[in-house]
């Protein structure tokens, strides 16, 4: 489906029209349905299964990350637009810093016997 | 600051041989992406604080006792649907249908307002049960994180109402087009942040 989005962007470029947001209705509907499924799965995993705690945490965080990626492509059209993808570069740097802050904080605080 | 934007603009224009005005609008969309990245950092630090402090309930209520499952599940689906309808608003804009565009923005704003309403209701119930922001480190981190997201949604609502008025007055122009593009990015971003609140705060809280 992301191929389709890229195709739509290429189309806009060829005709030299407005090149922002050429998402199609189909892309939005598919993105919406996938997002609902990816929201229902964690609910079922947490409330309906007897998986162990670590398994549940890994599953629901994986679902959240997949949904982040789905929404970036289907709703936010991250691949569209002309020229170098400065927005993608900025986003990757930002997400890297977020992961370092969150994982680093959790890691270092787990060594602090007074806090834990 | 202005100088830097102009520099970037002229380089970009030279590269793509595009209309100056249009290019400046797309530079502003890029600028907004960079704002969203900095907003990611803000939420990242608040998430880190929450994850570190969530066990520190100081004898007070825990997330498992406080979070009401129907409430946060409803909030999740409402915000997800509003993210979808803001996308439909952009589609209507691309077709040049200004009334349809305003219609979808109204639907988005109503869903956003019900989200904020549910969240305020949730906060009021928690405070009435004695779970105040000052009760424990867990609740301080919780109210700061979830409240910052709620504040973003509330600001987005005011912004969206302002844009509807502007669309009524000016119609779809390159400038209003860019503004709608930007607010829809903002709205999708808030939904993405909520997915992580839903997963890390609420689902892991009630486990």
Count all strands of chain A and give the number.
Answer: 0
Radius of gyration of chain B, in Å, reads 20 Å
- Series of secondary-structure elements of chain B, N-terminal to C-terminal: HHHHHHH
The helicity of chain A comes to over 70%
- Main pleated-sheet profile of chain B: none
For CATH, the homologous superfamily of one domain in chain B is named as Cytochrome c oxidase, subunit III, four-helix bundle
Distance between the termini of chain B: 48 Å
Low-confidence stretches of chain B: 1-18
Helix content, binned percent of chain B: over 70%
Could you say which structural class the secondary elements and strand pairing of chain B correspond to? mainly alpha
In the CATH classification, which architecture of one domain in chain B applies?
Up-down Bundle
Structural account:
The complex is a heterodimer of chains A (116) and B (207). Chain A has helices at residues 2-14, 25-48, 53-74, 86-109. By secondary structure, chain A is an all-alpha fold. Chain A has two domains: 25-81; 84-115. With 207 residues, chain B is mostly helical. Helices cover 86% and strands 0% of the residues of chain B. In chain B, helix 4 (69-94) packs antiparallel against helix 7 (174-206). The longest helix of chain B has 34 residues, at 20-53. Chains A and B meet through helix 2, helix 3 and helix 4 of A and helix 1, helix 2, helix 4 and helix 7 of B.
